[in-house]
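We now fix the convention by which a protein and its fold are recorded. These numbers are not coordinates but entries in a learned vocabulary of local backbone shapes. A record is reproduced here so that you can trace the correspondence yourselves:
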Amino acid sequence: MTDTSLFQQITDYANRADPYPLYTELRKSPVHRDETGVYVVGGYHDILSLLHDPRISSDARNRAEQPGGSALPGEEDEGDGVLPPTFLRLDPPEHDRLRAITNRPFGPPHSPRRIDGMRGELRTIVTDLIDHLDGGDGTLDVVEQFSYPFPVTVICRLLGIPRADESRFHSWADTLVSTLDPRPDVDTAERVRIAQQARLELGMYLNALLDERRKKPGDDMLSHLVAGNAPEGRMSGMEVLATAALLLIAGHETTVNLITNGMLTLLRHPEILERLREDPRLAVPLVEELLRFEPPVQMLPNRSPIADIELHGVTVPKGSPLCLVVASGNRDPARFEDPDRFDPDRRDVQHLGLGSGVHSCFGAPLARLEAQLALAELARRLEAPRLLEDPPPYRQNAVLRGPRHLRIAVDGVRP
């Protein structure tokens, strides 16, 4: 098996349901070079080191143009001219300034109770969604009816989106997220046009809402972002827009996959599902093991070195596209004992599921809490849940991996 064919198989939709045997092959060589110029790394220790290496850039301006373009289908493109790059696509010091300003109203150390203070509201949203799951025929789609609407509703409440406008946000999120998936039946230019139109509409809506918050601020994140009273300075209007859009899309998409992957894993391990039903406290270690075992983000494709880097005797040239396959690192036997076993009692779970270094997942506290509450309550209330299709149909995206639908049968929904 050549390096090129291996990487093509990893990104091939035909292997989306179970890419892990291919990751085993990937780890046999520390660095794989694809024919398009992409360097691929799959070992835990190497990925962790590179995530903390200041020579590794997330800024597309530091990436050399590749003859064949990106080899990674479904990589998000923020360079559409509608909004500026978010801090996910920037390096220090620009990254640090924007992230610090955003973080002040979101979590520790400045707002340590922001996320935990939402616990009651999150429970209410979860309860309401589960109350409406039973459609009468004993079947449901976990994605469409629960794990998709839940995080969108949560991020709307966090940002301070009026309840009456939440449905509009659902529509924009659905459009923008769907354009991240490569669709061979949809023309590329048309896909870009649809994404630009959705971003434009979202930007116009947020701009009007931000004007309202400037005149009449509240305790929501949008009000804090426009207040501009952080020591790091004030965001420009366009930076506030880009950050708000990032929180909506990035915060929503990963959580959808985390909850859906979690439910699928539990249904494949009924003994653990039963344990969670009896003891909801298991949700905390279970979600950490889930982030290792089935991470919602499989790989980080938008990296490149700002200087030549040598890794195990292989030189990765300056500007080369670098792909870090964190899902492979999470199953590396050099780091985890019996890595292909799902074990919520695992004591050492220093996973890469939420990244590491300066670009570690900004929304990690919220994503963890959402998944813990969601999976514990689904386990408690669904009567005899069972898969109708295994494997389920997956999203096309190679980076953001999760089922597009998760259809299950239940005997009922407990009160």
Remarks:
- Residues 3-413 form a domain with the Cytochrome p450 fold (CATH 1.10.630.10).
